[in-house]
Amino acid sequence: MINLCALLKLRKFEGMGSLTEENYIKSIYSLSHQKGEVSVSELAKKLHVKLPTVNSMIKKLATKKLVAYIPYQEIKLTEKGKKDALSIIRKHRLAELFLVQVVGLGWEEVHDIAEQLEHIDSERFYNRIDELLGFPQADPHGEPIPDINGKITSKNRIPLTDVKEGMSVKITAVSNDEKSFLDHLNSKGLQIGEAITVRKKELFDGSLTILNKAKKETMLSHLVAARIWVELA
Amino acid sequence: MINLCALLKLRKFEGMGSLTEENYIKSIYSLSHQKGEVSVSELAKKLHVKLPTVNSMIKKLATKKLVAYIPYQEIKLTEKGKKDALSIIRKHRLAELFLVQVVGLGWEEVHDIAEQLEHIDSERFYNRIDELLGFPQADPHGEPIPDINGKITSKNRIPLTDVKEGMSVKITAVSNDEKSFLDHLNSKGLQIGEAITVRKKELFDGSLTILNKAKKETMLSHLVAARIWVELA
DNA sequence: TAAGTAACTTAGATTCATCTAACATTTTTA
DNA sequence: TAAAAATGTTAGATGAATCTAAGTTACTTA
Q1: Long-range contacts of range A47-53, CB-CB < 8 Å, 24 or more positions apart?
Q2: pTM above 0.85, yes or no
Q3: B82 contacts B63 by C-beta, under 8 angstroms
Q4: What is the C-alpha separation between B16 and B10, in angstroms, rounded?
Q5: Are A144 and A206 within 8 A, CB to CB?
Q6: Is B107 left (phi over 0), alpha (psi -120 to 50) or beta?
Q7: Number of C-beta neighbours around residue A197 at 10 A
Q8: What is the mean pLDDT of chain A?
């Protein structure tokens, strides 16, 4: 046909999976890094599908040697699966940075577009963008960008909630791409690279008061602080 | 699921069709401009699918009021269908120009990537690119880019084969995006905007000898010349 | 540790875009 | 203008990705 769409036809020839398969692989990879073990139900929640859908897709990916699957056990990517995942994540993060730095969009609005761009099948396109951006190491949210071989250079980082009162730190990443969250940070004038000092931590609700570069105080809820990664100054 | 893919889900909410539907609409539009009447078999050839596949998709598009279809008759887009087609063509051509001017790829290699980028669902993305490129009127192959309202500003043009011996003209467009064709033009040093003079036209095979800006003579086959559009100087 | 609950799997149905085989209409041409 | 060829349509099947309903396995807890 143009095979569900022209994209898929090309993918077939080049041994790549469908868009759907790519989304599963990517989600398994990121869940395994967020939560350690990946279960059918977590994947289902993340992809907004029902359990049996995940179950059958996992079996399909297993026959393709992208995941190692034993019934009732944890879902794991094979080496090939990891390689594919890193390739997609590389494309996603390069796309995000490109959208911010070249196209001129805000960090709060690039995720959904990158979610589509990550499926573009063109080495040329992504290698050229990588070059254009000077082989960057992190995307606009501070997440590391795998290089062309899938290698990641990541920094030491701790969640803002772990920082003691009085300490000064630098924001290096945020672990959430939702527009509402990033709009919230924008409204507080917080961005990657920003130096902040933790003034006070409330025992009651875990919220904390910080001082930003402009010496202005702001309060962050525990939920928000937990999604902000920092490095010690 | 992320509904066959995340893309489709969004499309649904925004009333847009699937990737496949977009490809049909776009093909109907361009065939109708190339050949006047669009038939099931021409569409099938263009999309690399069999006749019944086209037949059922046409019926589906008809129920969506995107094409006006009467069995055994010519396939025509409705006004809504045309509007959609122009929106996709706009995205394709903006993408091509962007890939050449910003990403730095050659005009012979951008078609296949644009074929994928044209399905990106983001007004923001395309309007930003349009702005970045200075609201361009033509893509790297000289084809006009519809504006945000679908309006096309096209120039008077004639095929190079219609130019009389001795006349000087300027290349304004090529009506073919294939890499092999564009590589061929590259090898002869021909590009959009280039001024050329027709030296000789062979009656036997329709080939012609031209003189380029650098005063160098080249021979072009009839097939090649027929795909080059020019305007009189 | 047995019962109850949560997580997972299987079975079978649905929708989309495709296919092949068979049939119908239209156009060409002898 | 009737037969042959080309083009178009219908019917029914397939594979991908999903669903619901029902049945299994594993974990929790009383």
Answers
A1: A47/A23, A47/B1, A47/B2, A48/B1, A48/B2, A49/B1, A49/B2, A53/B1
A2: yes
A3: no
A4: 8
A5: no
A6: alpha
A7: 18
A8: 92
Adjacent-strand bridge partners of B209: B200, B219
Closest to B107 in 3D by CA, of B192, B226, B228: B192
Residue B15: name the closest of B80, B100, B90 by CA: B80
Beta strands B228-232 and B168-174 are antiparallel
Q: Is the CB of A64 under 7 A from strand D?
A: no
Q: Is B61 on the interface with A (CB under 8 A)?
A: no
Whether B12 shows a pLDDT value over 60: the answer reads no
C-beta of residue A69 within 8 angstroms of C-beta of residue A58: yes
**Is A70 strand, coil or helix?**
coil
DSSP per-residue codes, chain B: --SSSHHHHHHHHTT---HHHHHHHHHHHHHHHHHSS--HHHHHHHHT--HHHHHHHHHHHHHTTSEE--TTS--EE-HHHHHHHHHHHHHHHHHHHHHHHTS---TTTSHHHHHHHTT---HHHHHHHHHHTTS-SB-TTSPBPP-TTS-------EEGGGPPTT-EEEEEEES---HHHHHHHHHTT--TT-EEEEEEE-TTT--EEEE-TTS-EEEE-HHHHTTEEEEE-
At B215 the pLDDT is: 87
User: Has residue B19 got a pLDDT over 80?
Assistant: yes
CB A144 within 8 A of CB A153: yes
* CB contact at 8 A, B145 and B139: yes
* Run of H or E residues at A115: helix A111-117
pLDDT, tens digit (0-9, with 9 covering 90-100), for A19-74: 999 999 999 999 999 988 999 999 999 999 999 999 999 999 999 999 999 999 99
Nearest CA-CA partner of A199 in A213, A216, A183, A211: A211
Q: Which nucleotides of chain D are near protein (any atom < 7 Å from a CB)?
A: 7-12, 16-22, 25-26
Mean predicted confidence (pLDDT) in B197-219: 93
Whether residues A20 and B4 touch (CB distance < 8 A) is answered with yes
Put simply, the chain A residues between 76 and 95 with a CB less than 8 A from any chain B CB are none
